Amino acid sequence: MPFGNVKLNDGNKIPAIAFGTGSALSKTDVTNSIIQALKTGFSHLDTAQRYGTERYVGAAIKGSKLSRADIYVCTKYNTGPTFRQTLEESLEILGLTYVDLFLIHYPERMENHDWKEVEMIKQDGLARSIGVSNYNLPQLQALVERAKIKPAVNQIFFHCYNYKNHKALIEYAARHNIIIEAYGCLDPITKYPGGPVDAPLAAAAKRRGVLPVQILLAWVKAKVPVFITTSTSKQHLQEHLAAADIRPLTGSEIAAIDAASARGPPS
To answer: Does pLDDT of 111 surpass 90?
Structure first.
């Protein structure tokens, strides 16, 4: 079974796994990588104004020949005089009439702006859903208290080694029906090999005959509803999608990964 969709607080649905076009792919022509991801089975494309990849997302969508309804697109505000103007510019670059999700990339980007501007973007149909990115707990609480339309998503840098720092945020978001979307979730394997989580990941993988990276993704999915991965390797993309089919982690396996993660990454 695929990862499927997650229902947002506005009634829309978001695919649980996304293909990201930031990080190592920023400022590069990722058209072919995106087309490969779509052919492999991804439907959720994550981009941002600051990534410099919106034009390639648009080209890939056009080249894929897929229906607009079959592709979910998220972009994020970086800078500009108004949220609406910059989103309209993004839509022109993407070759779209709307995005499925529009996020404020950083809390600092809200300075001299009002959340009502973002709410109007949703009301006018330029974005089906709205949200934020990189908001900590106090920042999200303050926004929720004044928002007429609550953010549907908070996209954060999240992996097992920083879980303890985000636990309260994740719990608050769940209580308020705000989806936490994780990026950087594979860092324990890609950036911190040889760390304390390697052993419980390997043990759980061995019991199932799968890969540690698939166990790590299963752990992420057990903690947050939506996550982003990326790769230029078709094999890796297939492995990421196949993580949806592995036997669910047991409570003791999740606890073992949690305990190992609390020790922190290797220095």
So the answer is: no
Known binding residues for substrate: 105
In a domain, 41, yes or no: yes
Q: CA–CA separation, 158 vs 26, rounded Å?
A: 19
Q: Is residue 150 part of a domain?
A: yes
Q: Within a domain: residue 197? A: no
pLDDT for residue 2: 86
**For residues 188 and 165, what is the distance between their CA atoms, to the nearest angstrom?**
15
With contact defined as beta carbons under 8 Å apart, do 131 and 9 qualify? no
Q: Which residue range is the domain that position 65 belongs to?
A: 5-188+220-241
Task: Give me the number of domains the chain comprises.
Answer: 1
Which region among 25-34, 164-173, 194-203 has the lowest average model confidence (pLDDT)?
25-34
**Minimal CA–CA distance to 9: which of 227, 225, 244?**
225
CB 227 within 8 A of CB 182: yes
| Residues identified as active-site | 51
115, part of any domain = yes
